[in-house]
Amino acid sequence: MQAESAVEIVRASLALAFPTATDEGLTRAAELVLRWGSEGVGVQLEPDLAERMLLDLIAVTGQDPGEFEESRAPRTELTYVRPALSRAWSRTSETRDRLPYIPRPPERPGRGRFRRGRGGMPE
To answer: 18, 29 in Cβ contact below 8 A?
Structure first.
């Protein structure tokens, strides 16, 4: 698949999540999603890292974080996920915080990397 085609496919998906984003913001976000994918982020994208990535994509697309949060389905104490305090992907020029880049977040109780064993179950 050509790079331009991959960007357009990802861009179309992001347009559904960020309907008020600019064309430039969607294209930039799609390029980043593909870059982060090539960095192998998908195999370690636990819920807290997914929340952090979502915040990064909100910044890249120029969305209002408060407006985005209001449009999400209501979350309870059991379903709320606090964003990770680090990134497992390269920073963008739009990220203004100083969160560290940790290529593989350390394992801790309650967090395991996605590893496949017999039957596709985590080992």
So the answer is: yes
- 111 beta partners: 108
Task: Collect contacts of 93-96 with beta carbons under 8 A, ≥24 apart.
Answer: 94/56, 94/59, 94/60, 95/56, 95/59, 96/59
pLDDT in tens, 13-72: 999 989 889 999 999 999 999 999 988 888 878 889 999 999 999 999 998 888 888 888
Written in H, E and C, the secondary structure of the chain is CCHHHHHHHHHHHHHHHCCCCCHHHHHHHHHHHHHHHHCCHHHHCCHHHHHHHHHHHHHHHCCCHHHHHHHCCCCCCCCCCCCCCCECCCCCCCCCCCCCECCCCCCECCECCCCCCHHHCCC
pTM exceeds 0.90: no
Domain residue ranges in the chain: 3-92
